[in-house]
Design brief:
Blueprint: H1 34-52, H2 56-68, E1 97-98, H3 99-105, H4 111-119, E2 123-125, E3 128-129, E4 136-137, E5 143-145, E6 148-150, E7 157-162, E8 192-193, E9 201-208, H5 211-218, E10 226-232, H6 238-246, E11 248-250, E12 253-255, E13 259-262, E14 270-275, H7 282-288, E15 294-302, E16 305-306, E17 315-317, H8 320-327
Parallel strand pairs: 9-15
Antiparallel strand pairs: 1-4, 2-3, 2-5, 5-6, 7-9, 7-17, 8-9, 10-14, 10-15, 11-12, 13-14, 15-16
Helix pairs in contact: 3-4
Length: about 325
Amino acid sequence: MSLRGKSFGKSSGKSFGKPSGKSGPKPAGKREGKSRTTNEDQLKKAEAHRTRHSSSENRSTDRRFSASNKSYQGFNKKSGDRRFAKPLEENADSGLMRINKYMAHAGICSRREAEKYIVAGAVTVNGKVVSELSAKISPSDIVKFNGQTIRGEKKRFILLNKPKDFITTTDDERGRKTVMSLVSNACNERIYPVGRLDRNTTGVLLFTNDGELAKQMIHPKHGVRKIYHVTLDKKLTKHHFEAIVKGVSLEDGPAVVDKLSHIEGEAREQVGIELHIGRNRIVRRIFESLGYDVVKLDRVAFGSLTKKQLKRGQWRALDKKEVDLLRML
């Protein structure tokens, strides 16, 4: 805090802060004031905090750390005295929910997509068209979208370690085996696969009835990571390794990967690849463009999800901590 221009009462004719009867330069090694040291420390901490979040990796690490420590009890939020607080009119009736949120919770689509359908008049409540985005509904209301009744369901999140020879679709006209048969007894709610794995690709596959989260997981702008274990028909040469790292050109545009490495302790035909792009058969097409055939392709990670301790063909429900991490991606 600057002292310039401040008045300290009657002037005594002496310099402020100097001992009486003494003059000359300050002695060497004089200890700085506590307030000045504290201010410098605070400035350093503020600068470190500001520059830390300039890295996307640091931001991602901080979000995961925050999600995993929500149960920390060291911080007790002070609650105000609400004995005389009046509830807001829109919250007076418990159980009311905005109609776009209701549609998202039912797994129909995301909230933003629901708003478009509502404005277009594709949604009815108790037989009447509702076009107001602020409309709220109760559990007893009958909501229909394109003539089909929507039921608010509990959100379900199922993780499957997909085996070969199953296609990622809800049904198939040709009678082929689908992944839905593997999770048919996982829950009573109707769930859908998030994204696709082709018939001969194995590994991590998520199912949910949360349309909003599903769209977030597969939309390119969110850049959810995917890691694959690739087995090729021959050794990957150094020249082609470097070409993939730089980015190869495909018929639908350039394909850029985040990481590429050989699998430690395995033959040179096996590599690990991490990428965020999600175009159709993208991993297979990257290697095929350089003259390789992909013998095996296994997705070992999707976002924060892995197939650890989950045998091929088995599924399990995600816990709350895992779901919270997905929502933060």
